[in-house]
Design goal:
The protein has 247 residues and is of the alpha/beta class. Helix content is 46%, strand content 20%. The protein has a 7-stranded mixed beta sheet, with helices on both faces.
């Protein structure tokens, strides 16, 4: 089933895919600055948490889904030094920024390749990768079940999925404050930093409509993943899910 990622309601997949391309192509060169400002720097702790939970060693091949400007790709390169990283994203303009970082030495010598890829139809062979990483990606995919099934397919037996995504604070007061922040401040910061306020209205809606921690874990299990776990960060504003392909 395809959904409108802004509402969670059933809708043609093209609606969300084209909107995501439009939003992220226009903000690509200012996306990193927005992340730093809008999260008050908390995103650094989230990425560090991903690296602690990622079971990656120097013999591994890593696929970074929705790799964007390369933040997770280069964090993996710096902290884990795998054999190879394939950095993919739906939006070419985001990958252009990642390539520029690569040219500046961000990969620390780790071989990295870049390709425009729709994660709902991954163009790689079965059992090609030891680990799949993904940050802020699954929320923008209208065919989430299909995307997760594709990630499972390209993982080797026993391989790991590590997924950072915005989530739902369990505490009611914190959750209400967060929803106010999403509705009012995310569009404000987005408009101020990038000039595209409406794009960030969409992003705020997509976060609100996204399943909570248990809901995402259920989607992973339904796709065939096992050993699904999550850890909350910043009171549950973000959560890191890990899962395994059966050995």
């Amino acid at each position: 089933m395809a959904i409108d990622t802004a509402t969670g309601l059933e809708a043609p997949a093209e609606l969300s895919s084209e909107r995501v391309k439009s939003v992220f192509s226009s903000i690509a060169r200012k996306y990193e600055r927005f992340n730093a400002i809008s999260s008050f720097g908390a995103y650094k702790a989230w990425v560090a948490g991903m690296m602690r939970q990622a079971d990656i060693d120097p013999s591994h091949d890593v696929l970074d889904i929705a790799g964007g400007t390369g933040e997770i790709t280069f964090a993996v390169a710096r902290s884990k030094h795998p054999r190879h990283i394939q950095c993919t994203d739906l939006v070419p303009e985001m990958l252009e920024v990642a390539r520029a970082h690569m040219a500046e030495g961000a990969s620390c010598g780790v071989p990295v390749d870049f390709q425009v890829v729709d994660a709902q139809d991954i163009p790689y062979a079965d059992e090609s990768y030891d680990v799949v990483t993904m940050a802020y990606g699954i929320r923008n995919m209208p065919k989430r079940e299909q995307a997760l099934s594709e990630m499972l397919r390209v993982l080797r037996p026993g391989g790991q999925l590590v997924c950072l995504e915005f989530s739902t604070p369990p505490n009611g007061a914190w959750r209400a404050l967060y929803r106010f922040y999403l509705k009012r401040l995310i569009p404000f910061w987005g408009g101020l930093v990038t000039g595209d306020r409406e794009g960030f209205v969409y992003l705020a809606k997509s976060i609100k409509a996204f399943p909570d921690q248990q809901g995402l874990a259920k989607l992973m299990e339904q796709a065939g993943f096992t050993d699904v776990k999550w850890k909350n960060y910043t009171g549950g504003i973000a959560a890191i899910h890990t899962a395994r392909k059966p050995a």
